[in-house]
Records
---
Amino acid sequence: MKRLVIVANRVPDPKDRGATAGGLAVALQDAVTRRDAMWFGWSGKTAEATATEPALVRQGRLTYATLDLGDSDYRRYYQGFSNGSLWPTLHYRLGLAHFDRGEYAGYREVNAAFAKALAPLLREGDAIWAHDFHLFPLGAELRRQGCRQRLGFFLHVPFPPHAVFSGLPRAGEMLADLAAYDVIGLQTEDDAANLRAALAAEGQEEAAGRVSAFPIGIDADAFTKLAERAVEKQEMARFRRSLAGRALVIGVDRLDYSKGLPQRFVGYDQLLARYAGHRSRVTYLQVTPISRGDVAQYQALRRELDELVGRINGDYAEPDWVPLRYMTRAVPRPTLAGFMRHAKAGLVTPLRDGMNLVAKEYVAAQDPEDPGALVLSRFAGAAPYLEGALLVNPLDPDEIAEALDQAMAMPLDERLARWRPMAEVVREGSARNWCRAFLAALEG
Ligand code: GDG
């Protein structure tokens, strides 16, 4: 089997196994353990200048090749253009995006530096798979370095309609860069259709023909096992005791404005206001590890959430009941799985999301004899795949409150009827199958 070269903004720490690993590292585990592979990208560290020679760490058949980023490149490429321009634009939030030519230049320079450092490490016949919005121009830069290998690109986040994307200055250049890839993958058919139309509008019809949907999944069986084991642990027994028999609602999201957290908190507030019967009978636990904490919009969101949590708890708390438990620390994956299994409802209401793996994890964590209900944003990429969820408009707190009330009251037979097909979809659409489908397209 040919070697697989994965390029991503962040490379997982070779020492970090298991407990806190999530996201891409988990999804690609199968692909990088069954063949020779290299994982190339940013080390997560900054230095005075961006490194030109990658640091190499070998672990069995897998080589990690990482570059430190210069301080100015970190600000321009990562904080500036990737997080400040592209992330909001791709999540349909042009109003939150800013554009700065210097940052855009930094973004292109880092992509060129990645390509230059990677090119000498490549072997004939390697399959190269670049991930996510940080790397639109990487393929074109690799071609400039003389790379002839097959190049794939997968976008983990949504792709908006061209009318939105073209609000980004230099959108045309970004689309022309994508045309260097042989396979271009997105999460949903809608995203794929949007990107095809955008490419066609820029005269890239041929590249539009290389765009397909490859919905990402999770290792459902492993997550189910984690959840089953977690509930046996002392820590979970203590947590259950602390709930004193109250129903649990769980939310798990990075602290990000795409996740719809303020609207969700107001939705929960509406549940307590409009359906007084739930007061003192339900506890909502929201796990929200801080992310991009050095970006102003994320700091503002954190303050907004602090205030909302304080107000909701202030309004409804009893001496022995806190309605909304809110944590900004990350929780180990097995503990999360345990929380999810115990929760009567999973509350997943992003304003936009490429896929949303939490929705799938919630489904996988459920007890097949007594599953909980999933309240899901219709703007999550997962929505078209999880038909048994209670779909809501995440901008409408009243709709969230109504769906939560329905979830709390849902009889077992309805919960089973909704959950079973979703469990099937989540198991079938595994991370492994996602990798295999993409690599089959890439390697023909
Ligand atoms: C991007 C796209 C797409 C969260 N808190 C903790 C924790 N997590 C884990 C979750 C889940 C992962 O992080 C988050 O994945 P999501 O898919 O929900 O969202 P993004 O981080 O925005 O990911 C998204 C994804 O890429 C994959 O393509 O689905 O649309 O935005 O696995 O469980 N894990 C641990 N502690 C936490 O506190 N251990």
---
Amino acid sequence: MEIKQVGVLGCGLMGHGIAQVAAQAGYDVVVREVDQGKLDKGLGKIEKQLGRAVEKGRMEQNEADAVRGRIKGTLDYSDLADSDLVIEAITEDLDMKLEMWREVDSVVKPEAVFATNTSSLPVIDQAAVTSRPESFLGLHYFNPAQVMKLVEVVRGITTSDEAFAVGTDFAKSIGKLGIPTRDSAGFIVNRLLVPYMLDAIRAYEEGVGSVDEIDAAMKAGAAHPMGPLQLSDFVGLDTLGSICDVMFDEFRERRFARPPTLRKMLAAGWYGQKSGMGFYDWSGDEPVPNPQLS
Ligand code: 3HC
């Protein structure tokens, strides 16, 4: 199956990157948001990234203009009707995703393949509300989608060989490393990464080290580009909270349980980098440890 147009649902943290990477690979992209403000914000981020790429000499101005020209923003599901592949990257909330898929399924052509960028929700639960569960798979990107090489290609129990091949070929065509995984909550990366981030929060709670000491230790001692608490802020504490709840419900294991500090931070409205406050205060040029946590 040849893919010409890619539909992207959501133009937030992940959606804008997914849309940008597809357009950079030459696909026509239609990206849908719920309101104009969110859409403008997401498209603005893409324009900023393209501007930076030109500034740094990684892209010619005419190429950046062509990439931007291939991305159409919309508030209307029906603009996705002719998409060959639709990738959802909306909020990590199953009910919202199911409601959205019912709408999308009713307007997008029957031969199109659907993919979810869910971090942890079972792919089958979403596939089952569409009329095409065999044409449904997971394509799990990593933040920032423009930079991170991996896309997990998730085979649900109903995914056909053809749909799985579409996902695998698509990941390759956008320059990503597609790794196949089974439809098990958290797939490969989050199954390992989420308990690690949660354990870092527990280490902080137990006074093993301060926020910046824990992060500095993992950067200098394990060569990670970011420490686990900064990474938690970067992923979004709300997203981390949703993922660990799903994984805890699924596996009933303490390693996936939400630590009290995370619960309290979310109650305070501290969602990490996106809200300006988390384990770090992100309001300045450089993140500084949140003084309330010292
Ligand atoms: N969009 C596009 N490009 C970006 C970017 C973004 N949001 N952020 C950084 N970049 C680019 C920069 O332009 C720069 O490119 P250049 O080398 O060509 O100039 C390059 O990435 C490096 O960026 P910086 O020099 O600004 O900063 P760093 O060297 O510190 O790299 C980082 C930033 C790539 C984010 C690095 O810190 C990193 O790899 N962090 C870990 C990220 C990670 O683990 N992500 C996975 C999270 S888990 C997940 O997403 C799964 C989900 O389900 C929870």
